[in-house]
Amino acid sequence: MKTNTRQKPDGMLDMVGKKGRSLRSSSQRSGSELLTEAMPARRSAQAKAKRLFGDDGASVIVNFATNLP
């Protein structure tokens, strides 16, 4: 496993390593705060997607969004 550490220019996220197709990261304090602030909106969007598209449809949307560049 590659374990070099790189900090993103904005200082919010450190890339810790890569194994296969997964990427390990560690967030800085500012990144953790931003993620904490974003969680209510994320949960709301997930719930809305499930209401509109059902569990399977919401899963397809999440997979699609995950693979965006």
Entry summary:
The chain has 69 residues and is of the alpha+beta class.
Description of the structure:
This protein is an alpha+beta fold. It has one domain. Helices cover 55% and strands 22% of the residues. The protein has one helix at residues 29-66; strands at residues 6-7, 13-19, 22-27. Strands 1-2-3 form a three-stranded antiparallel beta sheet. It starts with 5 loop residues before the first strand and ends with a helix. Residues 1-42 are annotated as: Disordered. Residues 23-35 have a biased composition (Low complexity).
Characteristics of this structure?
alpha+beta, 69 residues, 3-stranded antiparallel beta sheet, 1 helix, single chain
What is the subunit arrangement here? single chain
Mean pLDDT: 78
Helix content: 55-70%
Instruction: Give the strand order, joined by hyphens, for the main sheet.
Output: 1-2-3
Instruction: Point out poorly predicted stretches.
Output: none
How many strand segments? Answer: 3
Structural class, please? alpha+beta
Q: If helices are DSSP runs of H or I spanning 4 or more residues, what is the number of helices?
A: 1
